[in-house]
Design a protein that fits this description.
346 residues, 28% helix, alpha/beta, single chain, LRR_dom_sf, 10-stranded parallel beta sheet
């Protein structure tokens, strides 16, 4: 009787492809106990492809029991550390451990999301909380690990999509760059970074390229979304062209942040779009915080790009001289980029 129940459990478990695990009603001993009964130590859900792990905010440590060779997408939500330097150090240490285990247990992982929100359990310090999240060894599911594999031979994670969001504290963005150095995403094609953190008062430069240099080294990126509304950057033609040169395969680029605009700081000129689409011929969707039309006779003389893929251009603030109508701007864009779909310009 019990063997039939067990076999049925394994049968149905083997057909689960996607699962979200939260803290409500989750017995901490169930998964380890069931996993220990599997003779070859294979995962309880061997066919699992998508996993949303929402139990980490309670300090649970049985994520490894769900990692398997078929996992393609992983979302992990952990507690925020509110700018605590000790909490950030512990968070990075946890990521180093998790990186090593993901390389061995889920080599086909292609999409990884790290979210930070929620509060620490009152009984745990940030350091203890993150230590609890990686105390399990990979041996608990050793059958998933290739006998010839090692961390040294699997240093690079072949992720295609990465999402990092919800950081708090002044060093939130800097923390993202340290994560990139841990995971070494050389094949990354899509990245989304969101943060409500303010920019650090200690930073030496406001230039966009100086602050995002680690990201510019990921040359294979095709989709980039940076949503950091409380960060302020110097964002001009030179900076925009540097971004385009770094990511020639871009299909969509969404930049959302605050910007400097004064006599000493300019924003990109509308005519620079021709250079952008020349450097990124596949760019179809482009969002940026600001752009300006120069107060000159040739202000709307944008070099035509008949083969351009650009069809969506969203500008947060368009600085247009009083003597130029917004309709003229739309017409100039349509003439330069045939695929462009005109939108209301204010």
């Amino acid at each position: 009787m019990w063997s039939d129940i067990w076999n049925n459990l394994l049968y149905y478990a083997s057909h689960i492809r996607s699962i979200k695990i939260s803290g409500d009603g989750h017995d901490t001993e169930v998964i380890p106990t069931l996993s220990s009964l599997i003779i070859d130590h294979s995962p309880l859900l061997p066919s699992l492809k998508h996993l949303f792990w929402d139990v980490a905010i309670q300090g649970r440590d049985d994520l490894l029991y769900f990692l398997g060779p078929n996992l393609e997408r992983l979302v992990v939500r952990v507690c925020n550390f509110s700018g605590s330097s000790a909490g950030e150090t512990a968070f990075l240490g946890w990521n180093e451990h998790l990186h090593s285990k993901l390389l061995l247990l889920s080599p086909h992982l292609s999409r990884f999301t790290i979210l930070t929100n929620g509060q620490y359990p009152q009984s745990l310090t940030p350091e203890l909380y993150f230590r609890r999240l990686h105390r399990l060894g990979v041996g608990v599911i050793s059958s998933c690990v290739n006998a010839n594999s090692s961390i040294e031979s699997l240093r690079v994670m072949h992720l295609r999509k990465l999402e990092i969001g919800g950081f708090f504290g002044e060093t939130g963005i800097g923390l993202c760059w340290r994560l990139l150095s841990i995971y070494q995403f050389t094949s990354l094609q899509s990245i989304r970074i969101t943060s409500d953190a303010p920019h650090s008062k200690k930073r030496k430069s406001f230039k966009l390229t100086d602050n995002f240099r680690p990201l510019l080294e990921l040359r294979a990126l095709r989709h980039v979304c940076l949503h950091v509304p409380f960060h302020v950057f110097d964002f001009d033609n030179e900076q925009l062209l540097a971004v385009a040169k770094a990511w020639p395969a871009l299909v969509s680029l969404r930049l959302m942040f605050a910007f400097l605009h004064s006599l000493n700081y300019s924003v990109p000129d509308i005519r620079s779009l021709a250079d952008i689409v020349r450097l990124c011929p596949s760019l179809a969707v482009f969002t940026l915080p600001a752009m300006e039309v120069a107060n000159s006779p040739d202000a709307l003389e944008i070099s035509e790009s008949p083969k351009s893929s650009l069809h969506s251009l969203v500008v947060g603030i368009f600085f247009i001289p009083d003597n130029i109508d917004s309709l003229e701007v739309s017409m100039a864009l349509t003439k330069a980029f045939p695929a462009y779909c005109p939108q209301t310009i204010e």
